[in-house]
Amino acid sequence: MSPAASPSPPPIPTPGAGLKLPPPIEVPDSLPSPEEMKGPEIERSLDRAKENLLAYIEERHPDCDTALLRKAVDFTVLAHKDQFRHSGMPYAEHPFEVAKLLADFNMDTVTIVAGLLHDVAEDTLHGVTEIREEFGEEVAFLVEAVTKITALGSRSRVEQQAETFRKMLVSMAKDLRVIMIKFADRLHNMRTLSYHRNEEKRRAIAAETLEVYAPLAHRFGLGQVKWELEDLSFKYLKPDAYKSLVHKVVEKRLEREEYVRSILGPAKEALAKAGLEAQVFGRPKHLYSIYSKMQSRNCQFEDIYDLHALRIIVKTVGDCYAVLGAMHALWSPLQSRFKDYIATPKSNHYQSLHTTVIGPGGKAIEVQIRTHEMDLVAEQGIAAHWGYKEGSSSREIGKENTWLKQVVEWQKDLTDSEEFMEYFRRDLAPSEIFVNTPKGQIIQLPQGATALDFAFALHSELGLHCVGARVDGVMVPLHRPLQSNERVEILKSDSQHPSQDWLSIVVTTKAKHHIRRWLRTEESAHSIQLGKEMMEREFRQARVASEHQADLAPFTAKFGVQNWETLWEKLGHGELSLGAVSAVVQELSPMRPKPSMLSRIGIRRPSKPVVDSVLVSGLGNMLIRFATCCHPVPGDRIIGYVTRGRGVSVHRANCPEGLNLTRDKERIVPVQWSVDAGQTFDAHLEITAKDRSGLLRDLTDVFSKVGVNVERASIVTLRDQVRNRFRVQVRDLDQIEETMERLRKVPSVYAVSRRTSGA
Ligand code: MN
Hints:
Layout: H1 39-60, H2 66-79, H3 93-104, H4 109-116, H5 120-123, H6 128-135, H7 137-146, H8 157-174, H9 177-191, H10 199-219, H11 223-237, H12 239-273, E1 279-282, H13 287-296, H14 301-305, E2 308-314, H15 317-330, E3 332-333, E4 339-340, E5 353-358, E6 364-371, H16 372-380, H17 382-386, H18 394-400, H19 402-411, H20 417-428, E7 432-436, E8 442-446, H21 451-458, H22 460-464, E9 466-471, E10 474-476, E11 488-492, H23 509-541, H24 546-549, H25 553-559, H26 564-573, H27 578-588, H28 597-601, E12 614-616, E13 624-626, E14 638-642, E15 648-652, H29 656-661, E16 668-673, E17 681-690, H30 695-705, E18 709-718, E19 721-730, H31 733-744, E20 749-754
Parallel strand pairs: 2-6, 13-15
Antiparallel strand pairs: 1-2, 3-5, 4-5, 5-6, 7-8, 9-10, 9-11, 12-16, 14-15, 14-16, 17-19, 17-20, 18-19
Helix pairs in contact: 1-2, 1-3, 2-4, 3-4, 3-9, 4-7, 4-9, 6-7, 7-8, 7-9, 8-19, 8-20, 9-11, 10-11, 11-12, 12-15, 23-26, 23-27
The protein binds manganese (II) ion.
Manganese (II) ion binds at residues 94, 118-119, 185.
């Protein structure tokens, strides 16, 4: 294999502090086959590779445990003895390269040893138990953590992938060195991906790298690993776009180098004059970052590539700001493009000053200014924190990582593999926006985040009660994506609660996590209340004596429930049929057992609480629920419909859905209102209006004047039109008609209606 020229364009020196990663290797057309490398020759070449590897590691880490390394190298060679890579090389080449990368990442001997053995448990007959006996618990833990989950009975590939990532994340939280082994493994696999002869597999590996590993590298601040993984994935996923971009970069290289040289001189001069000691570099752009900017901003190669970039490295934070002043004095700054990531570091600890200035010839120059330490963190991320220390506190670094802690927490709730992968990918999405609180605190959110995400980011309680948001002083719909630099103020109300549709408004995992948890708790409280009412009704009907009503024993015997709450919840949620529960109740009845009306109809799972406000003629005491399509209120003409299995549902007489049902004539029963004072009912209102500021406030004013309680609100904006939906609590038809009349008089309102369908 001969290393060919790197496809990315680093014509100008980059800061020397970074990792020395060799350029990606190009593929020779003809590959040596295992047959060409026969026994003794393979052994000789492996011996050479072994010595090279040990020398490579010792050179970087003179105090490493050579004896342990030698043992691990021999074990690796033996374990993979009869295996070959797609390139035709003996398999051991791969763990050897992984070990070298780990040495470059400043990892300790234990991690390098685990890197050597990382494929042993997955691909050979030697298991983790043997590794534990030979190399100890720490190495065994790391190897186990990076071993793929396979052959889990009938699980699908998606499930296996999801469970493998889940296991990796949980292990990472215990020991962050796990992810460094994964990065080294993936980097070498990507560098040698061209040997993979199956195109579909190549693309699948590249896609997974781009979706998961590159963003993970970004998450942990490993800038160099990230760009190399991205460029290599790009090459296999979009081969045509990749080739054309390489071609254009080469074509423009001279012109570009010349321009950078022409600005380096004046920049250095200005810094020297200001007495500032600084290193100044031109900064190459990576292929994938050029490509994705062209895509997202929908612009030409020249627009991106003509943006020149300088990096200035200094000794102290104070110097950073002094350099900023000197640059702004030399070339005039574009005011809107200044970012201070020193005062507000990114979540992966990246720190730097960013500014854009107008250079000679009116060309924009992006300038990054930072200290040596910040530069090291920008290139190496978490690896920069380790330094090379044997037995260092690397385990602790993982425990402090808040992102990792959160991921480990929320993944517990996501038992579904596909859902887990979807959240995981979204959580890794690298683009970030920065928005401000009214007090000037900066909050970092993923691209596409809404005011609701922002509310949850500040505090879960604020999120759960969020009713609206003002962005730069103007009310905005909750679903509108936020932009960087906006100032966001959250409006809250104690009566506000999450609803199912909130899940489609938020993008952050934190917000989703809290909304789901709230919905689940609410559902369970709902089921308990419903089940309890159903039981009471059954007891009452069967005239069961109260001392028998307090006895759980017959239900425990029949259903295995240990307390009433569980029984009620199961009944209310539909896990237990009312028929089955009713049968037990009948046993306790002093009356002659007769089949209850309810169990004959076979009511299982009412979706709404039982209501007492409607009388069903001729059927006596029945389970009633209001139809969710039309939400009748007292005063409305109503009809009852005996559903199959869910009691009587009550519709407004003019409900289209109700009319449809009348085809089934013998199921229609006459019903009449029987309302107690103080009872209220759900009604759904839809208001269409021209959007304007203060609209929402005027609408809610009407509700409070007529004494109607708003339970839920949703706002959808379409161009300059806004559709408001409210769920309100009313006494009767009169009250809702008065409310609607007043709403119609609010300026800019086009139409007010009671909704008759849709939830
Ligand atoms: Mn591997």
